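S.,

As promised, the S-adenosyl-L-homocysteine run. Input:
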Amino acid sequence: MSAKVILRAKRAQPFFGRHPWVFPGAIERVEGAPADGDEVDLVSHGGNFVARGLYNSQSKINVRLYCWEPAVPLDRAFFRERLSTAVRLRHDVLKLNTPDAGYRVCFSESDYLSGMVVDRYGDWLTVQFTALGVANRREMIVDALRELLEPKGIYLRTEKGIGKLEGVELHDQLLWGESPPADLSIAENGMRFLVNLTEGQKTGYYLDQRDNRAAVARLCGGKRVLDAFCYSGGFGLYAAKGGASEVLGVDASEPALELARKNATLNELNDVTFENADVFKHLGELVASGRQFDVVVLDPPKFARNRAAVPDALKGYRRLHQLALKLLAKDGLLVSCCCTGLIAMTDLEELLAQVTVEARRDLQIVERRGPAADHPVAVTCRESGYLKCLISRVL
Ligand code: SAH
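Predicted complex:
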């Protein structure tokens, strides 16, 4: 029999509503002395089964819920089935499993597998565990992934700070199979991108921006394009391929720029310039020198990890947009990406309104976009929605 986590009175509603995170404040008591990582039943104050999850006394999330059916245990077959459901979205519905493709196979809560992200890069998979319960089950997860996706190798990537948050020691390492080759590349919308999945940022590539890069590239024919926070060249190289007359990519990471330059060569796009610089500083210098662009892409990293950091994050976005407006020629296009989950689309739009009014310009939002469809949002855990991308015309 599983141990039980009993909720305080009147605290069961979110979990009957299938939200997967149980914080300590909702819990009255724990019965049966579960070890961290063990399966537990979440029970209402009145004694009714609510859901089944994995326990972790060391995490701020004491129980992560995976299943709402009383008769279904969280065993090998359960995790295999959940992963198979995630794979079906990418393969059968989205048809992303083309040769050498890169796509997100499993996106944590969004695929009802809290604490687990799996990306595919050609014949290799990366796995990220952000919860102890699933990290402890890595062998069964690796077995299921091998069976479902037949990769050549599976590599574990760890996010900084997770060990402490969850009380689990994890290190980047090959979990199974062959190490990825140094020149691993994926095919995306008719282009190729090198992916360093052992050392690159995130798990090697920003898969979530795939469709946004294509949407922007369609608008870049004959335009002067600035790709701020370019990483391995994504938006800028798409723009060049889309016929841009001039492309400048800016990033502060030399390894990222090395990849970007190699990606330019790989795609035979030799007219692209990449600069190693701090974007805030460099955009200021471009303004001072009177440079103008027809398209400015802003794709900064996450600026806030918690609510306390949101006001400073908004200041950062505001500054970037003020600079971008100064660089944009009349009828220019502004691409505003924001991957800070705590800042909503409406906040970003409000910020655009304020900044354009201050600059005495007009701005029309022409496309409101999100991440590519392999980054879905479970409707009962909308916190997983994070990426916003607004394409606007500036008058
Ligand atoms: N647009 C990219 C993804 C960008 S990720 C794509 O389509 O793939 C964010 C990038 O911002 C990272 O490459 C990081 O190195 C860079 N970065 C973070 N802070 C920076 C700063 N202040 N100036 C320049 N680059 C920065």
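The CA atoms of residues 212 and 389 lie 7 Å apart. The first strand starts at residue 3 and ends at 7.

- D.
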